[in-house]
């Protein structure tokens, strides 16, 4: 009786080898794709960062041929170079570390270092003769990291504007920190209280801070108490590290206690 040929494709060894080859091929394709797209991703991150910095000082749209136009990523480098006059990498004592590129500082990594070893980036803008100080922020929301920028006017006390973002806050609740209506609440708030203490701006549920610009408060997001508290803590925690630099500035007139 003639023996039937063995179908090797049905063997366990063949299945295993096929699976291994497919894993290697797919992994190689994904790695190649990720590597190829990395430069594009880096450019996108850089341009979005410039957009956010400019947005805190009111440059989120510009006039093009007399028509108000959204500041796109294609346009942002030109206006960033025009309005951001200095990028400083500050040490904990308020001195400037000339060897560090402030724009390239990764705040997430810096927060993992001891306070005295961290670098604190600062961007100085000049808009129509008005000077502003833009400070990067990073903290923790309900589920994950939150971050943003806050700009102070030349008195180093009054907020010009703020921008916030998040990694994983709840849509319709904590994720509302990215909305313009919430960010606008911070405009013209004070970061020092009447006694000269640096307290930042707190998002407090039911606060009347939206109308009272001298109480260091804004109304929190309804149903997002933890995220609102995270924004409050992030602002006060980050700002306090800039106090040594503030005290050295000629225009700083807050009576510190």
UniProtKB/TrEMBL annotation:
The chain crosses the membrane at residues 12-34. The gene is nqrC. It comes from Christiangramia fulva. It catalyses: a ubiquinone + n Na(+)(in) + NADH + H(+) = a ubiquinol + n Na(+)(out) + NAD(+). GO terms for biological process: sodium ion transport. The keyword Transcription does not apply. NQR complex catalyzes the reduction of ubiquinone-1 to ubiquinol by two successive reactions, coupled with the transport of Na(+) ions from the cytoplasm to the periplasm. NqrA to NqrE are probably involved in the second step, the conversion of ubisemiquinone to ubiquinol. PANTHER family: NA(+)-TRANSLOCATING NADH-QUINONE REDUCTASE SUBUNIT C (PTHR37838). This is Na(+)-translocating NADH-quinone reductase subunit C.
């Amino acid at each position: 009786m003639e023996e039937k040929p063995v179908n090797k494709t049905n063997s366990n060894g063949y299945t295993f080898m096929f699976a291994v080859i497919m894993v290697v091929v797919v992994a190689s394709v994904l790695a190649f794709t990720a590597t190829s797209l990395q430069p594009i991703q880096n450019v996108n991150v850089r341009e979005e960062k410039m957009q956010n910095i400019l947005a805190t000082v009111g440059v989120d749209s510009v006039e093009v041929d007399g028509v108000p136009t959204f500041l796109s990523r294609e346009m942002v480098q030109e206006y960033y170079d025009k309005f951001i006059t200095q990028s400083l990498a500050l040490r904990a004592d308020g001195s400037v570390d000339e060897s560090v590129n402030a724009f390239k500082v990764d705040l997430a990594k810096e927060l993992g270092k001891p306070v005295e070893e961290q670098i604190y980036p600062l961007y100085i803008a000049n808009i129509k003769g008005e000077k502003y100080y833009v400070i990067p922020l990073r903290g923790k929301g309900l589920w994950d990291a939150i971050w943003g920028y806050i700009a102070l006017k030349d008195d180093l006390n009054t907020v010009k504007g703020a921008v916030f973002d998040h990694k994983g806050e709840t849509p319709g609740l904590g994720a509302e920190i990215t909305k313009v209506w919430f960010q606008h609440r911070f405009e013209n708030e004070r970061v020092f209280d009447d006694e000269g203490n640096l307290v930042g701006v707190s998002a407090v549920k039911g606060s009347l801070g939206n109308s009272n610009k001298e109480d260091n408060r804004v109304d929190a997001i309804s149903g997002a108490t933890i995220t609102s508290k995270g924004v409050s803590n992030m602002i006060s925690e980050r700002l306090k590290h800039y106090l040594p630099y503030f005290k050295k500035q000629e225009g700083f007139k807050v009576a510190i206690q």
